[in-house]
Design a protein that fits this description.
Length: 171
Amino acid sequence: MARHSAAPGKVLSDGDSSSNITPDARAISSSPWRIENLQVSPDGRRLAFTSSSISQRQEKVDAFEIYTVDIGSMSAQTPPKRVTRNEAVEDDLRWAPDNRHIFFSVDLGSVEGKYKDTQTRLYWIDADTNQVQRWASDFGGAVAHYSVIPSGGVIATGKLGTEIQTYSEDG
């Protein structure tokens, strides 16, 4: 994980040209897991990502979590902040406009208890307090394919049986 500096690039000497690091890139964090689903907050200050197993096998449920990084103050030696601790595989991250909440979907495992497979559900987590809330909790079907709207709510498709409808919920 690195970001490019706004400053002009350095001229590399012949000895540096074989380096595998982009000029002016700097590490902002490191993780023992595979990093996926990178999402920068709307204000550009934080990065959220999901982790998964290095082997790409689903052997340990704790390999699949959401993490955040403060882009401006982190270094390669500073571990990212783990914001979820559950038995679910989180996917499809999106920041809310408030720069604090991260939306995500789950279709493997459970955020609300022991591992069990359910229909796709939509959640958000407060990246500061780690409090999770399920969206459309009274809907009995699968909630997927969502978009965050400027008010902080969502528009999502909901599937109940063979019927698919589009729904909205305010933040």
